[in-house]
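Handover notes (outgoing to incoming on-call)

Open items:
1. Hydrolase: sequence verified, structure written out, both below. Nothing else pending on this one.
2. Nothing else urgent.
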Amino acid sequence: MWPLGHVAVAYLCYAIATRVRFDARPAAIPVIILVFGSQFPDLVDKPLAWYLGVIPTGRTLTHSLFTIVPLSLAAYVLARAYDRREYGVAFAIGALSHVIVDAVPALWGEEGSADHLLWPVVGVEEYEQGPPTITALLQDSLTDPYFLSEFVFAALAFVLWRRHGYPGLGPLQRALERVTGRHREPRRDELE
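Hydrolase structure tokens:
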């Protein structure tokens, strides 16, 4: 799955989790952490495999349940120590949804494998001709129904995110304003 699909699935899962647990909408900072968590496995594995060549593929180390589950638990314990449990929950939902969603095509019997979930206990097929390029991955994905489903998940997540008031966007805008030195005047409806 591509980054957009991972964010979308993670947001949908987190929105359901916060509704069930608190009967509330997701809060801003946990959503930012959720987005990071939803990309975390690729942010670690792709560079380690594609550019440094220290792991066999872009789906091994942090795509393995043997790594991502303890890491998610550690994130939760650390967040709990600072009385920010929801930050740990958000990271865990983002990271775990990522590795599980990457395994879905194999569960449908399509091309690919879910072996990464149990790496290094179960071996993974190494790259034959080196790591793939983004262009090659995109070309291979264009006719794949699984790839196209990401846009459905993204549309659903965007509608829900909008309905929730765009949680996470405000803190990011304020941080960007501080970094760039630009200050946006609040709209009239924001002052009321």
